[in-house]
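Notebook entry, structure prediction.
Reason for the run: the old model in the group folder had no record of what sequence produced it. Starting over properly, with the input documented here first.
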Amino acid sequence: MASEQIFSNAKIVLPDRVIEGSVVIRDGMISQLDDSSTAKGVDFEGDYLIAGLVELHTDHLEAHYLPRPGVRWNMQAALLAHDAQIATSGITTVFDCLRVGMQYDDFEPGEVRTMADTILTMQTEDRLRSEHFLHLRCEVSSPQALAEFATFDDHEDVRLVSLMDHAPGQRQFQSIDQYELYFKTKKGLSDEEFKRFVRYRISESKKYSEPHRREIAEKCWTRGISLASHDDATIEHVQEAIRDHVRIAEFPTSVEAAAASIENGMSVLMGAPNVVRGRSHSGNVSARELAAAGHLQILSSDYVPSSMLHAPFVLAEEVDSISLPQALALVTDEPAKAVGLDDRGRIETGRRADFVRVRKDQGPPVVRSVWRQGIRVA
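New structure, fully documented this time:
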């Protein structure tokens, strides 16, 4: 016998409008939508019913695993804490970012692959609330990038790969002042140590970035893995992305790069914290500016999970040309489409019953309940 649930008296956010009514769920799928009120089922009391959020880029797992310098938390416990925060933020599908080739950070060799295996095992054992996939952030300027990327050749949950070059003078760090803040101040380097570090990173970028970018892009194209560029700043960067069959332009740093990416069929992804704060934390282009110009398709929570739900409501309130359904599509339908997940991301019959109940009065929106495939997870 098929299991059935009814959610009623809800403001249901559809792709093109908001209706007041009810939704019927059968066996974890959306079976029926009704724009009339009914006394049956769970009474939403006028709260919003939106599709579960689809998160393509979050670094937040690292903060749970490495909570302090030199401190490693139990990996399973860190993943459970991360998963709980993701789910209670309304995110039902998450792409966990894992580092490849970033030997300047705190991870030890093989540790990132162990983390990936832990995610897969715990998901297989049904110990996680949200559905997890892997997003490999590949530092192409690193000598270790290809070898570390190869350790994931057999991992079934790698669905997204981003190509990055964080060397000084490149992309995000076109200004040496920005680079100094991230690496000299953060790592406590002396002036001479910082100068040596900058020279070394520039030489690595010149030697490795181009061949590593091409080889990783080719492997992703062969395996059917969605590819993202990272911090594109110029038309030349966009042309590289076109050559490499990139589908997502992550965090372009200029209006020029964002517009060119859109014109060439890519989806532009920006950080939801940028929208909430009204500006980039690193001094680059405003996501609100890109949204108002029609140059934004996807938002990710990046480093603040709750921002992913907060940002669409900010856009709907602050940008005249963006409705609430359009704003919420940036965190539901658009990211799902960009990575080929056509079974979720919008409320319509035949899709997965991934839902979030949201109350919006004064201040940020409040997540009241979360369901994944009709099962309440938060």
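Summary: The chain has one domain: 53-342.
The old model has been moved to the deprecated folder.
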